[in-house]
Specification:
Layout (H helix, E strand, L loop, with lengths): L4 E5 L3 H13 L3 E6 L2 H11 L3 E5 L8 H11 L4 E5 L4 H8 L5 E4 L4 H14 L4 E7 L4 E6 L2 E6 L5 E4 L5 E4 L4 E4 L3 H8 L4 E5 L2 E4 L3 E5 L4 E4 L4 E3 L5 H8 L3
Parallel strand pairs: 1-2, 1-3, 3-4, 4-5
Antiparallel strand pairs: 6-7, 7-8, 9-10, 9-13, 10-11, 12-13, 14-15, 15-16
Helix pairs in contact: 1-5, 2-3
Length: about 240
């Protein structure tokens, strides 16, 4: 199952159950759900999902569109609108909030999976500000209009995410940065990390075991990180210092 966490905002029970089922069938995790727009904002901010599936028509002071505007003022979380309406006026109004996609209910699993995958590839949920490291072993993460402080010791591993991007993974978040893996290691300037593969660096203090035959490292939470042949010697050298 993917580590991507999805929050569902839907007031109609049948559509809510169908959407949650599609989330699970697509291999994502359900971060939470809410049926009332007036309560949804606080619930989303508390759950800290990677993406939100937002019904446009909701009971309460807000509808899905005004709720999305309020959410974007707090956090830069990708929103995918879900609705039974496909008229031009609704689409035009929804487009003003810059959603990453628009799905017609009932939602099909394949369409949902594609929309979420493209949403996260096109717009990182969080962006690491590499220059904003502190002397107490932390790094500041850009989240909406705020910088959120994350302890470097909580990072499990760092993974290359394509050209000029990398991903920092903690037990709760996947944080995407506009840095290469090499540049990120340089920015963090921490001896806690050792590169195990051309696309991976691990936090030495988060390693549970090394499986030499399979050439993988098992970190906290059960994730297997590959060990590259050219990095093996330096990896073992670094670990002997612990």
């Amino acid at each position: 199952m993917s580590n991507i966490r999805v929050f569902v905002v839907e007031d109609q029970l049948l559509h809510a159950e169908n959407t949650k089922l599609s989330v699970e069938e697509a291999g994502f995790q359900l971060a939470g759900e809410c049926e009332n727009a007036d309560l949804a904002l606080a619930a989303i901010l508390k759950a800290k999902p990677d993406v939100v599936l937002m019904d446009i028509s909701l009971p309460g002071k807000h509808n899905g569109i005004t709720l999305t505007k309020a959410l974007k003022a707090e956090r830069d979380i990708p929103v995918i609108f879900t609705t039974t309406f496909n008229d031009e006026a609704t689409i035009k109004e929804a487009a003003e909030t810059d959603p990453v996609s628009y799905l017609i209910k009932p939602i099909q699993t394949d369409n949902l999976k594609a929309a979420i995958t493209l949403a996260l590839a096109a717009k990182p949920v969080n962006e690491v500000q590499g220059e904003a490291t502190t002397s107490d072993g932390a790094v500041f993460i850009k989240s909406g209009n705020r910088l959120q402080k994350i302890q470097i010791k909580d990072v499990l591993w760092i993974e290359s995410a394509g050209d000029n991007y990398c991903k920092l993974v903690t037990s709760e978040h996947q944080l995407v940065s506009r840095h290469t893996l090499k540049a990120m290691l340089s920015e963090l300037n921490s001896d806690s990390f050792v590169q195990s593969h051309r696309a991976f660096a691990v936090n030495k203090h988060q390693i549970e075991s090394i499986h030499e035959k399979e050439q993988v490292i098992l970190v906290q939470g059960g994730k297997e990180i590959p060990v590259g042949r050219t990095f093996k010697e330096e990896l073992y050298k670094q670990l002997r210092r612990l």
